[in-house]
Amino acid sequence: MKFSAKKVAEKGQGTWIVTIDGKEWEEAVKKGKNKAAASIEIPGFRKGKAPKEKIEQYLTPVKYLNAAVQSIMEKAWAFARDQKSDIEPFTSPVPTPVKISEKECELHFIFDLKPEIKIGEYKGLKDKELVKEEVKVTKEELDKAIDQYRERFVMEKIKEDGAKIAKGDAVTFDFEGFIDGEAFKGGKGLDFKLTIGSGQMIPGFEDQMIGKTLGESSINVVFPEDYTPDLKGKSAEFKLNVKEIKERILPSKDDELVKDLNLPGITTFKELEDSLKKQIIDQKSTQSKNIFVNKVIDMIREGSKIEIPKSAINKEIDTLYREFEAKVQAQKLTMKDYKKQTGLTDEDIRNELFDDAKKRIESYLITDQVRNTEKFEVSKEEIEAKYENLAKTFGVETDFIKNSLLPEPQIKEEIIREKIVDFLYSNNG
């Protein structure tokens, strides 16, 4: 194989060119002929079982040369990657056969070039928005975390007739929703089980169930503005038929609970509280730090010059569109239904995603520039510590994470991303 590379600056594109000829291409053509011959269907014969002379009548150069290209594509791509060209792809290269004959094949791997970027100041930035908040754990947050463990051993006791629904009760009921007296799609449920106060239903639904008893009743709610397009902001009446009310009895917050949990390294309730406090602080610190750093990146973006090819933005829009589609489907809607309800077209949605796509690429380029300038290093000790921490968090063996979940290069990249965030957090505000 032979390799060369070129760039078309005015288009913001680059090409890796791989030429396959000689014996290597002869072998690929031979494989292509065999593969194409095996797939040919000739009337009166089973696929690939016709006489050789019959198959050759149907075996055109287009068929077997295309099969030859497919058979060698992956090898050609690996060869191109190994050449360590100065012209590097920013987006995934698109393979394009340019010349194909019995003697040689020329493949072009076409990609967007990494955009030119002139980064602004990324250290010493000051702004009223750049505030490093002190992270604390509230009693409510700690109680919620402890209750998640207590839920493992919850007991349920049926309440007597006449008993009223209270917060924390498990209620089984039928319901049906109406808007302007008309039942609406998806607003009906039978033998639905709900823990009152869990926040599973829309705001106001569970609160209005408190105090009700067995039998029929109704409540009135307003769908939130961030609900599905056909229901958001609308008032609805739900008719209920409460069938069963159970008191949920959680175990006490004591050392006996900890014994039942059997958590590694934790033997007392005080140790459980301390462990959960640390977890909550770590989570809130990470979240607070990420919010701060995102503001820093926004400020860096304002002082930077970044030219991104439209093709790269379009590819990122494709990714965001798929993410958006998944969110729509999570609300039990198809994109066709969503577009019908909102009146939006594919083009409208893609136009709305343009700024987010551009911002995501710019953020990546900025952090990549910081990484290359500051030259962050990752030691073996840091990698091992990361593995051990993950193993402890998930309660599995370190070797399992190494061999089955996260290979070392992936862990290394994760540590570098953390170092970039820590650097931007520490050197600004």
Automatic annotation (TrEMBL):
InterPro entries recorded: PPIase_dom_sf (IPR046357), PPIase_FKBP_dom (IPR001179), Trig_fac (IPR005215), Trigger_fac_C (IPR008880), Trigger_fac_C_sf (IPR037041), Trigger_fac_ribosome-bd_bac (IPR008881), Trigger_fac_ribosome-bd_sf (IPR036611), Trigger_fact/SurA_dom_sf (IPR027304)
E.C. numbers: 5.2.1.8
Description of its domains: Consists of 3 domains; the N-terminus binds the ribosome, the middle domain has PPIase activity, while the C-terminus has intrinsic chaperone activity on its own.
Major place of residence: cytoplasm
Lineage top rank: taxon: Bacteria
Reaction catalysed by this enzyme: [protein]-peptidylproline (omega=180) = [protein]-peptidylproline (omega=0)
Main function: Involved in protein export. Acts as a chaperone by maintaining the newly synthesized protein in an open conformation. Functions as a peptidyl-prolyl cis-trans isomerase.
Enzyme class: isomerase
Protein name as it appears in the record: Trigger factor
Source organism of this protein record: Spiroplasma monobiae MQ-1
Encoding gene, per UniProt annotation: tig
Family in the record: Belongs to the FKBP-type PPIase family. Tig subfamily.
Cell compartments where the protein resides: Cytoplasm
Example GO BP: protein transport
GO molecular function, one term: peptidyl-prolyl cis-trans isomerase activity
